[in-house]
Fold:
Amino acid sequence: MQHVPLQLASRAPMVSAITPMPSGSILFCDFDGPIADVSDRYYSTYRQALNHTFVAYQPEDGRLPIRTLTKAQFWQMKQTRVPDPVIADWSGLAGEQVDYFLDQVNQLVNQTQLLHQDCLQPGARDALLQFQCQGVRLVIVTLRHTGQVLQFLHDHDLATTVSQIYGATDATTAYPNRVEHKIASLRAAIADQHHLGFSTRAAWMIGDTEADICAGQAAGLATLGVTCGIRSRDHLAAHAPTVITGNLHRAAQLLLAS
Structure:
């Protein structure tokens, strides 16, 4: 993992009232989900992988019983953490076709020609600007490739709202979303903030998956789960974050003084 500068245990307790973050506080935030909406790219990856599998395994009569899920069906499965092999099965694949499909997904998901489909989550721009205006130090901790995050922020004129990025050097790390990788990355980010002289006493970790919540809890941080990403509210609730809300804009309303 690597970090790029642009210019922290026990499980955090549930709270009934949120103390607004004072100026100078640190907010650790995931990228895919809270800031970037990746649903179109993931669905395009699914459809392309399914089409490639159809071409590779099409029988002579041309009748491979493929069933293409709608985006709503596909995203609901992703949000409830249905494994990709099960998604393949629901789509009509079997046997070695499933393995071929999974290989295609892994090859396609981070291709440059699909990355442009990622877009800002509704309200994310306003939230990032609010954090900046309130003097909150925003540190992105992500399994996404650092260069991809930087490019996205520059494309949306938001690079100056972020203090540091802790991302992956391998573009294939984000899709599997392994908890241990996120825990290690957050710990490194926290240690660096302490080394730079910043306190993480009032820090939060925001994310849309169990990896984000578990990483924050392992570091003793308050955690906030957003439901606009790749996990459902019920799935996030099972991991007992301090707070669950809809998106980063609502998170800013909860964490910042009015």
Observations:
- The first strand starts at residue 2 and ends at 5.
